[in-house]
Amino acid sequence: MGDTRSGPPQPHPGRAIAHTTGASGFRSPHRSDSRPPQTPRGVRRPGLDGRLGTSPPVPGRPTLFLGGLALLFAFLTWQAAVDTPLRRADERLGRAITGSRLPGGAAEFLADLGNFIVAVPVLVAVLAYVAWRARRAGTPRWWLPPLAALVALAAVPALIAPLKAVVGRAGPPGMEGDGFYPSGHTATAAVAYGAAVLLLLPWLRDTYVRRELTIACVVLVVAVGFGLIRRGYHWPLDVAGSLVLSAMLLITLTVFLHRVGRTGGRRQGGS
Description:
Residues 1-57 are annotated as: Disordered. The chain crosses the membrane at residues 63-81, 109-130, 142-160, 180-201, 213-233, 239-257. The protein contains 9 helices and no strands. By secondary structure, it is an all-alpha fold.
């Protein structure tokens, strides 16, 4: 019996077909090509950088995230409103941070970054830049993202002021009156700087720049909160509750921007 391996290699039609585009046979890696995919690559139009089609990523289940944050915020608000072990521990932590070695001048500078007259002009400048870029690029409804960011910022005093009145928490030693929970300065910084970053991300091509800008925003907001605690303007729980509330506003803004981006991308694709 002759050795069949000595001859030239014989073609294997099954394998050849298996690697042919559009094949639908058994063990074919492209067997799904014969039926329309859920997201046709020939139809899908990736959004251009700087267009609404490249809105920031949205959590897979934003409702779940918002629900969890709402429960956390309700818990923190309850702890800040009544005398509990957590509130007493919060006040001990606040006194310890106030007596830390961070120079008072540096802490004051960080706290000032949460002032309305500092954070809001930054957001307004970004709004003007993004609106100019979007209108110049012919983006449909270019005015919606800046308007949504302004609404998110306007929601800060609309939510913070009633909460301060209802909770009525007294401030740290040396601060007169009540109404210190949640921290308005922290929320102003978080929403103003966070919304500015969300609006800028679609216009940035470099992934590294996008990531570093996001990280810088998070660090800045945390630094503002720490400066407020170090200077004795707020308790840590005031800042924590404000951060949670701000996260809820920013996630809502992100979901809205994502939906606007998808709508804008479809309109551009059909035009």
